[in-house]
């Protein structure tokens, strides 16, 4: 078959040695190269950044922490952490790394008059089998101001400026789905309740209780960090949170890691 194809090709070439034919061949080979390149680049990208599944967000599991919709966070006195991976579902129970547990504990310890909410988008319950993660969570649950809560992503975003963004599936098909789900959620939580958002790798060394509202951390000289943010629940703070959500709903970008987090607050 290949032999025949080659024979046929030579025949065609011999029969009409005209420019258009060569030009067509050139264009075909160019297109082939481009297509192969695109497939190659895509497969490298998929290899480096495999799609992170957020399918656990859709599980309606009664066996999980109380849903945030059942709680009224105290205005200006709440610190929020978000865990947006599906680990606590795939492992069959709630999982925190030591670093994450350390972040939560440091926030609770240095701000005893604030509530610290750890919001899980994945269903999961605490099962104590005495692993490192279990011991950490057990210790955290002894703090009166730490609460573990579940967030139903669909219900949480519904009727908000990012409701359609979630429904569009763009977050789930992002190359950085877990990070980007967290990017959207942090602005949404502060838009809903105001207060402090911290990344799960932020260690709080001093009390944040006396600070005025509406601040964000510095990522670098040119960029504002989205890992430490405080917005008031009304006035300027709420306005800024809403601007961030509107920016996200319009310009969400799945292939750029920093665009939807630090990018939004910097813009
Ligand atoms: C964890 O503990 C439960 C009972 O609390 C037990 O059924 C389960 O087998 C344990 N899992 C592991 C991995 O030890
Ligand atoms: C989410 O919303 C649906 C429909 O309103 C409701 O049936 C369900 O109980 C809600 N889930 C949670 C966890 O609030």
TrEMBL record:
Its main location: Golgi. The chain crosses the membrane at residues 21-41. Keywords: Glycosyltransferase, Golgi apparatus, Membrane, Transferase, Transmembrane, Transmembrane helix. The keyword Cell cycle does not apply. It is found in: Golgi apparatus membrane. It is a single-pass type II membrane protein. GO terms for biological process: glycosphingolipid biosynthetic process. This is Lactosylceramide 4-alpha-galactosyltransferase-like. It comes from Agrilus planipennis (Emerald ash borer). The gene is LOC108735466.
């Amino acid at each position: 078959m290949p032999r025949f194809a080659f024979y046929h090709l030579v025949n065609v070439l011999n029969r009409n040695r005209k420019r258009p034919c060569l030009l067509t061949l050139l264009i075909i080979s160019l297109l082939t190269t481009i297509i192969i390149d695109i497939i190659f680049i895509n497969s490298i990208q998929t290899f480096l950044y495999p799609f992170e599944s957020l399918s656990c967000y859709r599980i309606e599991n009664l066996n999980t922490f109380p849903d945030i919709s059942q709680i009224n966070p105290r205005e200006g006195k709440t610190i929020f952490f978000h865990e947006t991976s599906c680990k606590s579902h795939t492992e069959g129970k709630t999982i925190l790394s030591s670093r994450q547990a350390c972040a939560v504990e440091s926030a609770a310890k240095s701000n005893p008059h604030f509530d610290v909410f750890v919001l899980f988008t994945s269903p999961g319950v605490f099962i104590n089998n005495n692993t490192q993660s279990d011991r950490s969570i057990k210790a955290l649950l002894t703090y009166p101001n730490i609460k573990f809560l579940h967030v139903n992503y669909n219900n949480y975003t519904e009727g908000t400026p990012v409701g359609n963004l979630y429904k569009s599936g763009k977050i789930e098909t992002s190359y950085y789905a877990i990070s980007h789900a967290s990017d959207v959620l942090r602005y949404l939580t502060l838009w809903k309740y105001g207060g402090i958002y911290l990344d799960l790798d932020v260690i709080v060394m001093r009390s944040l209780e006396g600070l005025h509202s509406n601040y964000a951390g510095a990522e670098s000289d040119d960029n504002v960090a989205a890992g430490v943010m405080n917005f008031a629940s009304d006035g300027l703070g709420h306005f800024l949170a809403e601007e961030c959500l509107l920016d996200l709903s319009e310009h969400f970008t799945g292939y750029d890691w920093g665009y939807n987090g630090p990018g939004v607050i910097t813009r």
